[in-house]
Structure formats: C-alpha cells, structure tokens
Amino acid sequence: MKDQILSIKENATKEINDAKDLQSLDGVRVKYLGKKGELTSVLRGMGALSPEERPIIGSLVNEVRDTLEELISSKENSFKQAELNKKLEKEKIDVTLPSKKAIRGSEHPLNRTIEEIEDLFISMGYEVIEGPELETDEFCFERLNLPKGHPARDMQDSFYINDEYVLRAQTSAVQARTMLKYGGTRPIKMICVGKTYRREDDATHSHQFNQVEGLVIDKKENKVSLADLKGTLEVFVRKMLGENTQLRFRPSYFPFTEPSYEVDCTCFKCGGKGCNLCKQTGWIEVLGSGIVHPNVLRMNGYDPEVWGGFAFGTGIDRMAMFKYGIPDMRYLYTNDVRFLKQFDRKDID
Question: Model pTM?
Fold first, then answer.
C-alpha cells in the first residue's frame, strides 16, 4: 500500500504541474483528493491493515494529501495572478491623456442670499430664530392683531390643513412666539428666516417663498423709534442691492404695526426709468415695516406702556431677483442647471 500511495503522489504531482488552466487543475483535485478520489480510496482500505501498519500508512496518506493540496493551491494562485496581469494589461489607463473637466456645483442663489442676510444682521447684534412652518391660526393671525373675519386676512390667502392649522403665510408668527417665550421681561432683537406659503403665482410671486422677518423691542426709555427702523432698512437694502439703490417710504397699513410703511427700491432692471417688471413706475416694493402695534405687544406679554419697537419683513426670493438680475421668480424653482451654475461668476463680478 505504501508503494501505491507514493505512486499516487508521483502521478498527481505530474498532472498538477501539467495543468493548463483552473478547470484542468480542479479536475486533478477531484481525481485524487475528492470523495471518490484515489487517495481517499486508500484511506477507506486501511481497515484491512494490521494495527501496526495503520498509523504508518495513515501518517503517509496525510503527508501526501498536504503536499498535493499545497501544490494545487500554489498552481491555482499562479493561474489567478496570470489572469489578473492579463486583465490589467488589457484595461490599463493612459494617465497622460487630458482629463475630463469635472462639473463644479454652485450654491443656490436663494441660499446665498439667506446667508448674506443672516451674516449682516448677526453683525448688527440680531439673533437668528427659527419657527414651525405648520402654524396654528392663533399664532399666524390672531396674536398678530388679525382676528377671525378680519378683512386683511384676504391679502394672505393661505393653505389651511384644517380649521386650526395652516401653512404659515408669514414669518411674523415667530415674533409672537419669541415675545411669549421671553415673557415681557427682556429686550428682543431678532430675525427669522424661513419658508412661507400663499396662493400667488406670477413673475414676482410664488405660492412658496422665503421671507425674513425682523423684530426689535426695548423699553420706551431707550427710545427705539421710526428713525432706527429707517436707518436699519437703509443699511440692509443698500448692503444687499448696492449703495446706489434708492429707497422710498410710503405710509401703508398692516394690522400688526402702527404706523406702517411700505419700502420701495429703484427697479434693478430699468434703474427707475419704468419697465414691464416695475409696471412702468420705476419702483418695486421690497419691504413692509412699522412700529409694533400696542395690541400685538399686549397679546404677547409685553406692556405697551413700558415697551416699544419696530418690525419689518421682506421676501428673500424677490431680494435674490434684485441682487442677481433674475427677471422671473419661477426660475428659482425650476432646477435648471444652465440657470443655476452662473451664480458663482456673478458673485466674482
């Protein structure tokens, strides 16, 4: 039996060395080391051996098996390495060829404008405060001096979820929440930036738009006045739209401020001469502002005999239009890469 084992080793070694590929090598493995292989058959016949011969033959069989498995593994690795080298040679890349130009993304003009507004007001000592987009009717209207049935609600035609909840038509709701949070005990100097929703859709309006709302409240002895409001808005608008931008303040009506003012700026498209964008007036409305109404102070925890201040709000989408010369607000939401990728260059200009 010893001679038979050595003969199997010699034959198997020759066939392993002669194997031309992985398939033929696997055939050799099955032939000699498989369940019905020649070396396995020898092990099955060991029962006929004497007790003295069994350990000797068993040790020899294991030694031959280990040798053959090592040879097969080495041959298999050489086949795999040769196949890999062939594949690498076939698929190699010429790194000296010119590369394809990577497309560089740019920040959305709305996000650019929002960040610039926040940076400006933070530098002026304002807090940036956030609030929910799904608001209650109480905070969106009633606490801003707009009770149910008030005709001014028609100007803010809104998306109601039910009788109580509404997609906020203005970020002013955050002013009421902030006043209640501070409980009438401390001054407030804050802005809120976020999405608002109204049923509007034309070149200068959208059913969803971003708004920034500002609120300053202090004790009356510190004399926060309309002059402070005017100075703040001049810094804001001229910083965003350019130092040559002209402002116009018009008396207006807002339920949450008294007195109230609309703020217009010269049309960016025609420079004030009159065009289709500004409806031939030379001016475009950009802001609503005024002194906080005593009812709003009172309803939200501030004594109007002790506290006073001003508030203002504007649409950021329209501000982005003026800043970047965008003729139609709807371009901001079409996700047209040809339109969006130009704003890096505009900032450099």
Answer: 0.65
